[in-house]
Write a structure and sequence with these properties.
heterodimer, A: alpha+beta, PmbA/TldD fold, 2 domains, 8-stranded mixed beta sheet, B: 442 residues, 6-stranded antiparallel beta sheet, 6-stranded mixed beta sheet, 10 helices, globular
Chain lengths: 481, 442
């Protein structure tokens, strides 16, 4: 592949571009789903193509193609140059990229069992087994159990001399049961809804989920939720479990600290950010126990790789330290705007067809020193919420509202009854400022976000967020406030 | 015979006698994105993907790929056949349908639009940027264009093809603390009013400076077409899809034939010849039907694919989506029946209310009541005694759409084409008692 890719670099050199690169990407994805007792999806998809990026006299151009011939690669590279020339018609200062050493390397996601080598029928057998258990209640009207596996093989050549080959692997699975009665429906999932849990790695990720051990509970809780009382409204203390805390991190910290958003380059679509650059190192994002770390080297992380798609080596850095805004997700184009001489390496593209853009890295809330029991015992009147069903946040990442699958009331330090339709609202810095306890490392888990959308044209990226349950004081509970 | 047809025939040969369906999607797209009054991203993409479904007596397998050399095709089909053979039978699985006569649909292809180049897009971006710079404003947005061709074929004799060109100009303008937005989609670039969109967004941003905070609560709202379309699309998604309906999870479950919404609301799904026309057949190769979903507030029908139609004891309306489809068949070409008067008339008739340009990040909270939440964005104004009195800071709504669309006071005469989870031809609307649950400081 590098031989074919070199053709694009020849064209880039011919036009004396400031910078050029080509990423040849071969993606394989396998998706299996069983729904209401039948196969609803059994897809094996492979794509192969390349994206060529050039920075010509300070302006960007990008083009992609799928014809794997030297002639087609050369034509695509020339198209990228022509687009860059058009970009020069409307530019301010020329784009200058932060320096990065040239690397020649091969990197691969560590794994124990190749998920593509596990027979399809073995995977389907497990899904059918789960589905049969989930359907074992007359109030359950819709069930779903699914698995997904991805392998991205990429060959990256840059005019700066990098020659990087990477193979990124992910595996995921999940199940949901939806109970329906009297014009109402309730959904419960394991490990969570939105397709379940995905992590970097092989079939061992699926085995570790131990899906069969949870199917009965998921089914029974979905049915029980129908007859549970509704979540009360008003200000209460809140403990967040599961993938809901991961999504809280994702939406209110991850996207808010993408430097392109912060600088206004996403204004027309996803929006901007309240976490503007003059706040770096000063702004109180949360309480002193809130520490959020971005880490492209994290084992199991979906954004873990040897290098990002700017060719920057993987790093670990603070985003919020001791409650104060401490860093951003960056690329080589924008990091200089905040005085950084080197990018943090958080620039990735979706497949071969898209230009690399700043994406959220693996971003985790560091554990505290409490147990979950201690979090609960410190609440007189509160609620526990687990697993996301609905999410919405404004275009500056301040005002959010999340709905969850299930809630449990807390009275006088004890977890009591189940409630349905739990939801909470807040304003980002005030919410993180109300965090007064975080469970310790024993309960810390990594949660995958397998389909984060951003950019125009739309791009999907994957990343993880690690967290243990955390307690927030005096939060607005209930959808209507 | 073109390349796609040739590849389909090769695939059918390799399917070795089992039922075989091919979906081929060819796309050429280009997008120029600008921010801070300069081009920030400029891209072009070319793709051709094949998705193949094999069916054999209650067994099924899918494979998809974008390389069509003989070795790639042979490898992909051999793997899929192997999966098919090893699979247990599912007696409920439907075989392929016999080919049916398909409507021609509206011509939605314009070569000039499909082939607009980067110079054209840069020129259009520049027109906005120069006007913004002169006025001390910041312009952001996109100019994008392209073409797509979709082919559905099977080895029972179906071969259906549809192509569309597309162009969009989307403009967001910031004027200190004021924001404005305007956007237009078309199949023909000559229909895009670039200058008008730029001026609308710039004027709205200027008028949006110095927004005031108002208390959340229930207000009359005047929804511009884009804002109204966000809500209507939610109603379509959670109310009128055959899968949620047959599982008793949709808003329409148990309500067909009953008046559940305002008599001012009539909605049809029409991909064939209406304002929101699109693909005239579905992803099973079935002809798309025009379906009246809501007639003067009475819920009339939901849309089906073959699977949900069988469960509901009816016929497919031709609304299958590409498989695997999480939500099943959905109405994605909605047309809302226009009413009377202009947006200005809706404002004029409002004693006290809020004018909303656009909603951001809308999402569902409870499906049966279609309770949704989202934020206002890019131009929210307080209206008193029939006129706009001031811009206001953005607010979050949390509202059952079943209730909101029962409270329609007026619908405007002019419907605008909006892309929001499909294509929607939507007029402006005025609704009473709309719930804003919280606010922001911007």
């Amino acid at each position: 592949m590098f031989k074919l890719a070199a053709k694009a670099m020849e064209i880039a050199d011919k036009y004396r571009v400031d910078f050029g690169d080509i990423r040849v990407v071969e993606d394989r994805g396998q998706y299996l789903s069983v729904r209401n007792g039948g196969i609803s999806g059994l897809t094996d998809a492979t794509t192969l193509g390349y994206g060529v990026r050039v920075l010509y006299k300070g302006a960007w151009g990008f083009a992609s193609g799928r014809e794997m011939t030297e002639r087609a690669v050369a034509q695509t590279a020339m198209k990228a140059v022509a687009i860059a020339k058009a970009s020069r018609r409307l530019m301010a200062a020329p784009v200058r990229l932060a320096r990065e050493p040239a690397y020649t390397d091969f990197w691969r996601t560590p794994f124990l069992k190749d998920p593509f080598a596990v027979p399809v029928q073995a995977k389907l057998d497990l899904l059918f087994r789960l589905d049969a258990v989930l359907r074992g209640n007359s109030r359950i009207k819709a069930t779903a159990a699914s698995m997904r596996f991805t392998r991205e093989h990429q060959w990256h050549l840059t005019t700066g001399g990098s020659r990087i080959e990477q193979v990124l692997l992910s595996s995921g699975a999940g199940m949901t049961a939806t109970a329906v009665e009297n014009g109402e429906s309730q959904l419960r999932g394991y490990p969570c809804s939105h397709g379940g849990q995905t992590l970097a790695g092989g079939w061992e990720v699926i085995e570790a989920l131990d899906l069969p051990a949870h199917a009965e509970r998921v089914r029974d809780e979905a049915a029980a939720l129908l007859r549970a009382p509704a979540c009360p409204s008003g200000a209460r203390d809140l403990i967040i479990y599961g993938n809901q805390l991961a999504l809280q991190i994702h939406e209110s910290v991850g996207h808010a600290t993408e430097l392109d958003r912060v600088l206004g380059y996403e204004e027309s679509f996803a929006g901007s950010s309240f976490a503007t650059t003059e706040k770096l190192g000063k702004f109180r994002y949360g309480s002193a126990i809130v520490n959020l770390v971005a880490d492209a080297t994290l084992p199991g992380g979906l954004a873990t790789a040897g290098y990002d798609d700017d060719g920057v080596k993987a790093q670990r850095w603070d985003i919020v330290k001791g409650g104060v805004l401490a860093g951003y997700m960056t690329n080589r184009e924008f990091c200089g705007r905040i005085g950084m001489r080197r990018s943090r390496g958080s620039c990735r593209a979706d497949g071969y067809e898209n230009i690399p853009i700043i994406r959220i890295c693996n971003l985790s809330l560091l554990p505290g020193d409490s147990s979950t029991e201690e979090l609960v015992s410190g609440i007189r009147d509160g609620i526990i919420m687990e697993n996301n069903t609905s999410w919405s946040i404004d275009q500056q990442r301040l005002n959010f509202q999340f709905g969850c699958e299930i809630g449990w009331l807390i009275k006088n330090g004890k977890r009591t009854k189940m409630v349905k339709n739990p939801a909470y609202q807040g304003i980002t810095p005030a919410f993180w400022g109300s965090c007064d306890a975080i469970a310790d490392h024993k309960e810390w888990r990594l949660w995958g976000v397998a389909s984060c959308g951003k950019g125009q044209p739309d791009q999907t990226a994957m990343m993880c967020h690690g967290s243990s349950p955390a307690r927030f004081r005096n939060v607005k509970i209930g959808a209507h406030g | 015979m073109n390349n796609i047809e040739r590849v389909c025939k090769k695939i059918f040969r390799l399917a070795k006698g089992v039922q075989c369906e091919v979906l081929a999607e060819a796309r050429e797209s280009a997008l120029t994105r600008f921010a801070d009054n300069v081009i920030s991203q400029n891209v072009a993409s070319s793709s051709l993907n094949f998705s193949v479904r094999l069916l054999d007596g209650g067994r099924s397998a899918w494979t998809s790929f974008n390389q069509t050399d003989d070795a790639s095709l042979k490898g992909a089909l051999a793997s899929a056949l192997e999966i098919l053979r090893r699979q247990k039978k599912d007696p409920a699985l439907l075989p392929l349908a016999k080919p049916r006569a398909l409507p021609a649909g509206r011509n939605l292809f314009d070569r000039e639009t499909a082939e607009l180049g980067p110079s054209f897009r840069a020129r259009k971006a520049g027109e906005l940027a120069r006007a913004c710079r002169k006025a001390g404003q910041v312009g952001c947005g996109t100019v994008d264009n392209g073409a797509a061709e979709i082919t559905i074929a099977n080895n029972l004799g179906l071969f259906a093809r549809h192509r569309e060109s597309s162009v969009k100009h989307s403009v967001t303008v910031r004027d200190r603390d004021g924001f404005g937005w305007a956007e237009q989609h078309a199949h023909d670039v000559n229909e895009i009013d670039f200058r008008g969109l730029n001026e609308t967004a710039r004027a709205k941003a200027a008028a949006g400076r110095g927004p005031r905070w108002i208390k959340p609560g229930k207000y009359t709202v005047i929804l511009e077409p884009a804002a109204a379309a966000s809500l209507v699309s939610g109603l379509g998604l959670y109310g009128f899809g055959g899968r949620m309906y047959t599982e008793g999870r949709s808003f329409a479950a148990g309500k067909l034939g009953k008046r559940a919404l305002s008599p001012l609301l009539s909605v049809e799904d029409n991909a064939i010849d209406g304002a929101s026309a699109g693909l005239p057949f579905d992803y099973e190769g079935q002809p798309r039907s025009k379906v009246t979903l809501i007639e003067n507030g009475v819920l009339r029908a939901v849309v089906h694919d073959r699977e949900t139609a069988r469960k509901a004891g009816t016929a497919s309306t031709g609304h299958a989506l590409p498989r695997p489809s999480y939500m099943g068949p959905l109405p994605l070409n909605l047309a809302i029946k226009p009413g009377q008067g202009s947006l200005a008339d809706l404002i004029k008739g409002t004693e006290r209310g809020i004018l909303v340009t656009q909603f951001h990040y809308t999402n569902i909270l409870r499906t049966q009541a279609v309770e949704m939440t989202g934020m206002t964005r890019n131009g929210t104004f307080l209206v008193e005694d029939g006129r706009i009195v001031c811009p206001i800071k953005n607010m979050r709504f949390t509202q059952s759409l079943a209730e909101a669309f029962n409270n329609i006071e007026a619908v405007s005469a002019l419907a605008v084409l909006v892309r929001e989870r499909g294509t929607i031809s939507c007029p402006a609307m005025r609704l009473s008692g709309f719930n804003f649950s919280s606010s922001t400081n911007f």
